[in-house]
Amino acid sequence: MRRRLVSVLAGLALLVAAGASPGAAEVPIRVFVHGEQVHFPDQEPIVVSDRTLVPVRAVFESIGAEVTWDSDARRVTVSWTGNQAAVFIGSTTAWVNGSRRTLDVAPRIVGDRTMVPLRFLAEALGLKVEWYDPYWAVVVGQRPSLPVLAPSAEPNLVMPCTIRVAMRPVPPGTDEPPREGSYEVKEVELSEYVVRVLAHEFGDFTDEGGTERYFLNEALKAGALAIQMYAWYYAWHPAAADYDLDNSVNYQVYIPNKPLYHKHIMDVNAIWGKYMVRSNSGEVFAPEHGRGWYNARSEGTDWMSQRGSLYLDKERGYAWDQILRYYYRNIDIRQYPHPCGGLQ
Q: For 51-78, what is each residue's pLDDT tens digit?
C-alpha cells in the first residue's frame, strides 16, 4: 500500500506529479526547513516534470546559507557549511563543490523569482530531504512536529488518509490488546480505523442500573468525529518513529475484525469530510474520550464520556455537534473540501 499520510518516502526524488491526487491543484506545496515552515509571499513552489522548484532565497537564506546571483552568467550560487552548489538559469548543468552535475530540470525565473530544484540543492549542501505524500509537504533538515494547519488555515489543510497502528495481539479470553509488548505495524485506511474504533469504544452496554443501552446516531456521529480527530492529531505527532499510535487503551482500541452494525458505517459516513479544530488557534488537537457513566458529567473538560454522549443524545436531544461542544472547549467544526475516501 502506498503510504498516504505521514509516511516518509526516504530517498524519493520529490516526485510530485501534477494531478497525481484529487484536489492536489488546490493544495499548495509546503516546505519546512529545520522544523520551521517557509512562507512564500509572492511565488509558491511549482512542479516541473515531476520535480519541485522553489524560490531559492526564501528557502536557503532561512537556514543561513549565502545566496549570490551573477546576472551576466545567469548563475545562482548557494554556500553553506563548507559546501557550495551553482546552477544556471535555463541549463541542466550544475556544479557541486567543483564537480559537474546534471539536473533533471533546469532552474528558471517565475514571477521575478529564481526557482531552483529543491532536492538537488538541499542534498548538495548536505541536507536530508523528505517528502510527505498527500500533505504535499517537503521537509529539509531537521524534522518538525508538523502542524496540520498552516497559519492560512483552509487552503493548506490536508486530511490524513491512513494511520500507522502498532498492532499488539489480543490475548485469548480477552477483548482488548495489552498496553505493552511486541507489535507489528499495520497501515490502515483512516475510515476503516475510525469505524472499527467506534464499534468498540462506543459499543452498546448495560448501565449502572442494569438497563441495556443502545447507541443512537447523534452520539455515534460525535464519537466518530472525536475518534477521527484523535487519529488525525497522532498522524502528525507520531507516538514513535515507526508508528503513529497503538491499538490499545494507550490511545484508542482498534480491533480489525470488530463486528459492525449498519449504524456504525452510516454515522462515520455522515461526518466524513468534517474536521474539528480549536477556534482560537485553528489547530487540530487530540480529543480525549473514555467510557464514563451514563450521564452528562465532565462538561467543558476536554474529555468526552462515551456513554454520557448517549445520555445527551437520548435524554436531552442533543445533535452530534452539540455533544462535541458540550465536552470540548473552544472548537470549530468545519467542512474539508477534498476528504479522503470514506466507507463503501
A: 899 999 999 998 899 999 999 999 999 9
